[in-house]
Amino acid sequence: MQSLKQISTLSNRSEVQFLPLMAQEDHQSPPYLGQVLVIRPPPVFSVHEQYISSKFQILKAYESPLPTHDFLQTYAQSVKVVLCSGGSPITADVLHDLPALQLVVSSTTGVNHIDMAECRRREIRVTNTGDLFSDDVADGAVGLLIDVMRRISAGDRFVRGGRWPAISEYPLGSKLGGKRVGIVGLGNIGSSVATRLEAMGCIVSYTSRQKKNSTHYTFYPNVLQLASNSDALIICCALTNDTRHMINNTVLRALGKTGVIVNVARGAIIDEVELVECLVEGEVGGAGLDVFEKEPKVPNELFELDNVVLSSHSTACTRECFYDAAQTVVANLEAFFMSKPLLTPVS
Amino acid sequence: MQSLKQISTLSNRSEVQFLPLMAQEDHQSPPYLGQVLVIRPPPVFSVHEQYISSKFQILKAYESPLPTHDFLQTYAQSVKVVLCSGGSPITADVLHDLPALQLVVSSTTGVNHIDMAECRRREIRVTNTGDLFSDDVADGAVGLLIDVMRRISAGDRFVRGGRWPAISEYPLGSKLGGKRVGIVGLGNIGSSVATRLEAMGCIVSYTSRQKKNSTHYTFYPNVLQLASNSDALIICCALTNDTRHMINNTVLRALGKTGVIVNVARGAIIDEVELVECLVEGEVGGAGLDVFEKEPKVPNELFELDNVVLSSHSTACTRECFYDAAQTVVANLEAFFMSKPLLTPVS
């Protein structure tokens, strides 16, 4: 079995084309290692289905004419493992329908779509993809920040709309160098964002559950103080009961009329209604949003704004990351069925 | 007079709002230091006109009903100084019309719009804005690269077009980490781009007139070899007779079907007809273009492509940069009229 380190180095080989991983044509291959339930196909599964399906028997709830609840009850006694992502949440109800469940494998980093408390109570183990996605999400966050401050997507619309010859001077953007950027949640993604911002001359500070001794960035004990002292905020923390709607009207007004907010974490960390109000009323300067409260629904008011860049929860979506994530999913499933230690368990 | 170092630090003060610089309300202020011809208003002049006009008598050819040639001939004997940018080229014809000219002040870094050979012959001095714009242009270049590779502007169109709910899986982007990025021209801008790319885990190499001993990046002696060994090319060099159409069909095909090209230098460094052909035929993977051969004209074929990001020669256009550039323009003009050393002469 490949180690996570071995897997993650694959994406550094630029000659690899990252086509979908293919089933090995090995006539000596053993029969399926075990059965894996998929309620709705995670994107990583869709891209690499042939590879994953060559190793495990996939029980596809989404191809059954039965309602999900009925389907789950039909297979209730046999399902030990479920593969999921944000689009197929593992709620208390789903868990209730699966009394024999032993493992939840998520093809994502965040596990807010899994009822972790119930999993703990029933001793159901959970795996994610570790920090495979961190660098790509950080690149996406920085891309969104540059895009909003330097008006790249709006400028692309301006040129494609044929407006350049008529209006020779496109509105000025805002310089990144020297700007104070506050990072909400200095984990793997937040730290990767910070490294990139420092290279652009930004002044980085952060807030998190507790001050980190391993960094020289200025710490603020809460997000309101961070916003008050920042020209831009980048949300990189997990969605929990503590962080839900943490970014509200008060925080956004502290960020201010020229402040920019970027969210690459989870939509519900921001009170979306209040964010839309602040953007429409000019109480905040701009936003780069990869995530939303009710995906794939995006508030229509945002479609009219040139100081907003919208993305479809895709900052983690690169061919290289999906390739690595598929291998991590398979490695965790193999480990489970072979009674070996899981590769990336969520504690 | 402020030194360039003092000026450049202004943009690091995030509390500065970078509103247009205002004429100082100083009733003791001396009369105009001298006369400055403006044939067409450079963008920096348009934004900070009141400030610049408070110090110098501006002779505005663009407000005269006379054709430019006639206007210039009318003022031929008095004009010692002209302020220009790419939109108001100082050609041999213009220079011929201005026999008393002693100084050309450009509000840009590049001076390819000035007939430098004729200026040298006539001992007309030329100033640019030094490297004020380097960091902003580098941010713009990196923004365009991330945008193309991670499909940010195309994704913004996808979401604004209301397509996300119907097509849940947006096409995967390409990871930046581990990619080999070749920089064409490792001057101030190229070096700033390199610093940013390294923070994102890219492998940087370059070509330039000669190998630089001060850097650890791999050097290739020509752009074809660089393209053959790169996943992306970023054009950061000056436009000269040597670099005109340096990026042609052969170089683009060496970059290849998944390769990305970014141009933040000058449009004519790329053979635009051949680039458009390569993009339309899929011979090159994508492009982020801030500059074009016949600005503000952009080839219509590009408007249809989702793997292209278009920008209106605006990677240098931030409020902070324009603020600094206006001060550099004024400082050079003051130095000239007070017979002091020019701040940022072009050698």
Automatic annotation (TrEMBL), chains A, B:
Every D-isomer specific 2-hydroxyacid dehydrogenase NAD-binding domain range: 142-314
Domain D-isomer specific 2-hydroxyacid dehydrogenase catalytic: start-end pairs: 60-346
UniProt cross-references to Gene3D superfamilies, sorted A to Z: NAD(P)-binding Rossmann-like Domain
Keyword ATP-binding applies: no
Keywords of this entry: NAD, NADP, Oxidoreductase
Entry's family note: Belongs to the D-isomer specific 2-hydroxyacid dehydrogenase family.
Protein name listed in UniProt: D-isomer specific 2-hydroxyacid dehydrogenase NAD-binding domain-containing protein
Species name: Lactuca sativa (Garden lettuce)
